[in-house]
Amino acid sequence: MSITQAAPKGGAVAGRGSYGFVFPAIRGVQAGREFYVTMFPLRLIPRMFLFDEEELQPTLRAQRTLNKARIPEIAQYIVDNPNGYVFSALTASVDADLDFQSFGTSGAESQIGIMSIPMSARFVINDGQHRRAAIEQALREKPEIGDESIPVVLFLDVGLERCQQMFTDLNRYAIRPARSLTILYDQRENAAQIARMVVFRSSALQDLVEMERSNLSARSRKLFTLSALYTATKSLLESSDKLTNDDAVGLATDYWDIVFHLFPEWMQVHTRKVTAGDVRRDFIHSHGIVLHALGNIGRTLLQETRDPKKWAKRLAPLSEIDWSRSNTALWEGRALVGGKVSKSSTNVVLTTNVIRQKLGMPLSPEEQRVEDAHRRGES
Question: What would be one Pfam family of this protein (predicted)?
């Protein structure tokens, strides 16, 4: 990209003050309309792409309002991964006449060329406003990334209604990948790597854990999702951040192996004596909320000892708990709300509290506060 005195299509020098941005570009056609694909240096993104519509009414905007809570996380992703971050293209509309000079008159060469955009042009992002804001924040912390580039798809602005329809069409079929699949493919986060390795090292868990989906159908042969095991294992190892990944995987594998053998129904699913769907229907211990609570229990045990034999002794009473969903006297208001399993943070704590009490473990101050509030609500 360069800034130069723009030239009209005839090739003559432009008049005084007619300056613009010049980009290499590829021209295409969608629905009978021309569009252009080019590259912008990151340092130009905050200057050229506007997002100033937050104060307008929804009917006067061409995209959603900015969720500022998302920006620091995305920006930190760029800063933490200078040699590995990946961003998809921004999509924007431009409200000026573009001058496209192709390299040839026919074939592929006629679609490749140089695009000139007047400096007075106004760009509005149709898709990628959070990426744009994150790039701006990351540049303040790491300005050296400014010469790197991001692909941009440019459409000629044809008014608010067309921009609103573009936003709708761009997001109509966008589906966020399942959390389990994201964890399965994540090569950066230690917790994701540990959760995967725990499954891979355990033949039982390989048989019980769904690796791709984050929701289990009634006929699924799996008891848990990888995302549920990830959350539980992350809680289990929360106070063990000085461990190497191999040590963390070893501890977590030992812990979940002990837990597995304390639930006869899990073993029966593994040996094909009962179906996973029947167990999930009849028992709460086959749901992520209990797995998370067991991770909380394990965290306490790891703080006390690293000896699996002692864990097995402390955890033995788990097999004496009535985990039936029909046991509403115990689980309603804790793991269940209106007869349905609830995954809220409060319900996780209340479920953890039941297990702690059954195992003779004291509650933490925060757990006691939640427990007291729950009991006041019952009275």
Answer: DndB
Residue 158: per-residue pLDDT: 60
Predicted confidence at residue 211, as pLDDT, reads: 94
Q: What is the pLDDT of residue 161?
A: 65
**Does 190 share its domain with 285?**
yes
Query: In the prediction, which pLDDT does 260 show?
Result: 96
- What is the tally of structural domains in the chain? 2
Domain boundary among 156, 172, 188: 172
**Same domain as 161, residue 40:** yes
Contact 26, 111 (CB under 8 A): yes
Q: Give the domain range for residue 217.
A: 179-378
**pTM to 2 decimal places:** 0.75
**What is the C-alpha radius of gyration for the chain, rounded to an integer number of angstroms?**
28
**Exposure of 159 in the CB half-sphere (CA atoms within 13 A):** 2
Which of 313, 318, 316 lies closest to 351 in space, CA to CA? 318
Q: In the chain, which residues have pLDDT < 50?
A: 3, 5-17, 55-57, 59-60, 379
**142 and 194 both lie in a single domain:** no
